[in-house]
Each structure stands twice: as C-alpha cells, then as structure tokens.
Specification:
This protein has 15 helices and nine strands. It is an alpha/beta fold and 369 residues long. Helix 2 packs across helix 10, helix 6 (151-161) packs across helix 7 (165-174) and helix 12 packs across helix 13 (304-315).
Length: 369
C-alpha cells in the first residue's frame, strides 16, 4: 500500500493543464488529484467537465433495462455483500424458468432493450444451468440484448466444469449472450481484495477473463466499487488497469463507478464505514476517471442506485455522461441498505434536463436510439 502525498498548488495545476492538453496521467498523478479539497476540488471538477464536453458533448445517455438476479444463494463470503444467502437460509431463492420468462416479458412491455442477468455462485449450478437461463430469455425475446454473467461467474463455471474460459464464453455466446458486465472488479489491487473479498477471483483472473471476452467479440463494461478500505493510489491504479486493457482490446463500453453502500454489511460494521457514498469522494473519483480515461473509455457512468438521483445528477457536472439503466428492480444494493430499485425514463430525463443537458436513450453498446 502506498501513502499518497498531497500536491502543492503549482503541481496540482500542472497536472490539470496536462490533462486538458490531452496528456496521459500517471497513477501517481491520478492519486494526487484524488486528494483535492476546497478550491482544488472545484478546479478538478471544472477540468473534468471541460474534458467531458470535448469528448462526448452535452448528451447524457441512459438505457431502458431490467435487472434479473436469478439467485441469491452463493458460496462466496464477500464482506461487502449483504445479498448472498446459504442454501439453508429461509430467504434463499432461485428463480424458476417461468419466473425469468415473466420478468423478461414485463421488461419488453416496458420498452426495455436490455436484460442484465447476474446471480450468486450457486453450489449446484453448472454450465447447463447458465445456458438454460440464456435459452429461456432468447425463447421469449429473440432480439433483446442479454448483458449477463460477471467474470466471477464465468470463472466459477470454468473451474467447476474443468473447462477453459474460452470454451465457457463461446458456449454463452452461442446461446445468445451479447455482452458481459464488468462487475466483481471491486478494486483491482490484491491487497484490497484480500480484505474485502478474499475468496473471490484475483485481479489477474478478472483481467484475463475480461480480455478473453473482448478477444472473442463480447464487449464488457468496467466497474469500480469505491469507498471502503482502498487508498487514492489504489483507486488510480485500478483506473490505469482499465485504461491499459482498453488500449489493448478496445472492448470496454463504459466505466461505472459504484460507491459502497455499507449499512448492512460485515465490512461496514468492522471498519465503521458511513452507510452511503460520500459525495465529495464521489466527485473526485468521477472527475479523475474522466481525466485518466479520456480518449480510451469515454463513457463514464454515475450510479443513481448508489448515489441517489440528486447525487448522480451532481456527478454529471464532474465528468460523467451516463446515468445507467432504468433497472425495474434492484436487489443487491437494497440488501446493503439502499433505498431505490427503479427509475423511469422520464425521471432520468428530467434529471438531465434540469442541468441543461440533452437526454438520449441508448443501447447497451452506446448507440443512440
């Protein structure tokens, strides 16, 4: 773990000037910006907003989608998670094929173009169970975009079945998978992962899985879960890893910043973390992500699920240009203490219009509708 050093004013402004000139910022420079306070924070936000304007203009996008968490049964023991349950837990569930079908039909009736499907690592699920989920969706929705199965799920199935990542991903793709959520990244530094999710896939496994998806023609998102035990240097390191992958593969569609909602989690209790993401911390990260990823990953998403509608709206002034999806239902953040599970397109558009920006519906891969 590296200890960040606060920059002097001339160094801070020099870094911002380099970012505005289009220069690539180092991990150390990103870490220095991530300590901005007061007037420096305002300068950082203004620089990120200017780079946002140059890179993507004034359009703010969103996608009409539905989350489907097909099971909360999980063999994992991630300390930031309040969603997972054991097989014996009375709150444990597995959605039936009929329930999944109905959720997809409801999503189509609401105008959704995407279904996002993820679940716990069920001890009895094999490759065929995952393929059956894809087939079930395709049966009732031949053209909907299926955005499903995290790198942790893909690794779990590959290891359990004794198959390669390539074979599992190819079979998913053949069954109808269109893209992969880049979740389970948390912070891509193994010191942090050893504290918050010691049994989850490593940084190297996440990177290898993502690169394999990209090589096989499946785009992915990229995520960061911030606001727990990580340092500014580790946050900047995470962003630089995303940037280096994108230089190689061009496979990321967006970078999604997910503030940690800690209220009902073991990690939150142990480290006495505040229940919801700090807005100042969030502003820094959205701004620095915009500056470090400019020209590589130009879609920066603010999560209204984590930050609330007004918090997400504020991030649009600090470099973000996307508000994510309508979702229709959300269980993972709610289990941790979140309050929201759905937003209508009209609500998202109003948030965008209120700050003088242009709302546009998009596809999963950022084609405007």
């Amino acid at each position: 773990m590296r200890k960040a050093i606060a920059p002097n004013r001339s160094r801070f402004r020099e870094i911002l000037q380099r970012a505005l000139a289009g220069d690539e910022l180092s991990v150390e420079e990103g870490a220095l910006l991530l300590q901005a306070e007061g007037r420096r924070l305002q300068e950082l936000i203004q620089a990120a907003d200017e780079v946002r304007r140059r890179r993507v203009g004034d359009i703010v996008t969103y996608v009409k989608n539905r989350n489907i968490n097909f099971t909360n049964i999980c063999i994992g023991s991630c300390r930031f998670c309040a969603f997972h349950r054991s097989l014996e837990d009375p709150q444990a569930y597995v959605l039936s094929q009929e329930q999944i079908e109905m959720k997809v039909i409801e999503a189509l009736e609401a105008g959704a173009t995407e279904v996002c499907i993820q679940g716990g690592l069920h001890p009895f699920f094999g490759l065929e169970d995952y393929l059956e989920i894809l087939r079930t969706v395709r049966k009732v929705a031949p053209r909907v975009h299926i955005h499903a199965f995290s790198p942790a799920e893909i690794n779990y199935i590959a290891e359990k079945e004794g198959r390669s990542l390539e074979e599992v991903i190819r079979k998913f793709k053949e069954a109808g998978l269109d893209s992969v959520p880049g979740t389970t990244a948390e912070i891509l530094v193994d010191r942090v992962r050893s504290i918050i999710c010691p049994q989850k896939i490593s940084t190297e496994q996440w990177v290898r899985t993502i690169k394999t998806c990209h090589r096989l023609g499946l785009p992915t998102s990229a995520t960061m879960m911030y606001g727990h035990v990580e340092t500014p240097w580790e946050q900047a390191r995470h962003i630089s890893i995303i940037r280096e992958i994108q230089k190689e593969t061009k496979g990321f569609t967006e970078f999604v910043l997910l503030g940690f909602v800690s209220q009902n989690t073991p990690l939150g209790r142990e480290f006495n973390l505040q229940p919801f993401p700090d807005l100042t911390h969030s502003l820094r990260l959205h701004a620095v992500a915009r500056l470090m990823l400019a020209g590589h990953v130009d879609n920066i998403q603010a999560s209204w699920v984590k930050l609330g509608p007004r918090g997400a709206q504020l991030m649009l002034t600090a470099g973000a240009n996307d508000l994510g999806g309508t979702l229709m239902e959300e269980h993972i953040t709610r289990a941790a203490g979140g309050n929201l599970s759905s937003m209508t397109a009209e609500q998202l558009e109003n948030l965008i219009l209120e700050i003088g920006r242009i709302p546009r519906q998009r596809t999963t891969t950022y084609e405007l509708i």
